[in-house]
Specification:
The structure is a single chain. The protein is α+β, with helices and mostly antiparallel strands and about 230 residues long. A hairpin with a 6-residue loop joins strand 6 and strand 7. The longest helix has 20 residues. The two termini are about 30 Å apart. GO terms for molecular function: DNA binding; DNA-binding transcription factor activity. This is Transcriptional regulator, IclR family.
């Protein structure tokens, strides 16, 4: 697609080319069709703005500013989850979290903390293993089995347990990831059934009990549905 503003179209073409693979100047010229002198001038200008950088071989690659700009965009799942996490925290009386999978780990991307008393705190950005805990169970239960190679060998749960999680729609953990801590989680799905995240609540076992899923599972699944509906508009 062309905007009609030549310099912008050429610069975008260079960025798109580098997004596919690292490019030496000669490759930029070949792929984009931009004259060598112009391609060099634009690439150096984009590098000055940190939209391009150089790898160890001197080839142009996407620069850090691209990631910074992307990170500044509102995350629709996190935005939709924020009021639901607060609602769940108030309903459950415990801290709530939203997790996404990243390889063999899960990352806390949003949280609503209990304001007082003994609580389990999971700061946003925390990385936890995908091998223990109710959030990990949910992210594994709805994952492509082929993507779990090596994960289940180290997990505190079995494939049969994951099948049960998927059947009932929620997972519970009692001292599985951390002694003294219990949690309940449910999957956040897109309108077409794709797994987006896991929503969780966690707290001390003495408050949640040894079977927290029976009491809190319906709340977690209701919260997950609220997020799905909010994303669907």
């Amino acid at each position: 697609m062309q905007s009609g503003i030549g310099v912008v179209d050429k610069a975008v073409g260079i960025l798109a080319s580098v997004a596919d693979a690292p490019r030496a100047l000669a490759e930029l010229v070949d792929v984009t069709g931009v004259p060598r002198a112009t391609a060099h001038r634009l690439a150096v200008a984009l590098e000055a703005h940190r939209l391009l950088a150089r790898d160890t071989e001197g080839r142009f690659v996407l620069g850090p500013r691209v990631g910074e700009l992307a990170a500044a965009l509102p995350d629709p799942v996190v935005s939709a989850a924020a009021p639901v996490l607060a609602w769940l925290r108030d309903e459950c009386g415990e801290s709530t979290q939203l997790y996404r999978r990243d390889g063999a780990e899960r990352v806390c991307v949003a949280a609503a903390e209990r304001s007082s008393g003994l609580r389990t705190t999971v700061p946003v950005g925390s990385r936890l293993p995908l091998t223990a805990g109710s959030g990990a169970q949910v992210l594994c239960a709805w994952a492509d089995p082929a993507s779990l190679a090596g994960v289940l060998d180290l997990a505190e749960f079995t494939p049969r347990a994951l099948a049960d999680v998927r059947r009932r729609g929620w997972a519970q953990s009692v001292g599985q990831r951390e002694a003294g801590v219990a949690s309940v989680s449910a999957p956040v799905l897109s309108a077409d059934g794709e797994l987006l995240a896991a929503i969780s609540t966690s707290g001390p076992i003495e408050r949640l009990g040894r079977s927290p899923g029976q009491r809190l599972g319906p709340l977690l699944t209701a919260g997950a549905r609220r997020i799905t509906l909010a994303l669907a508009g």
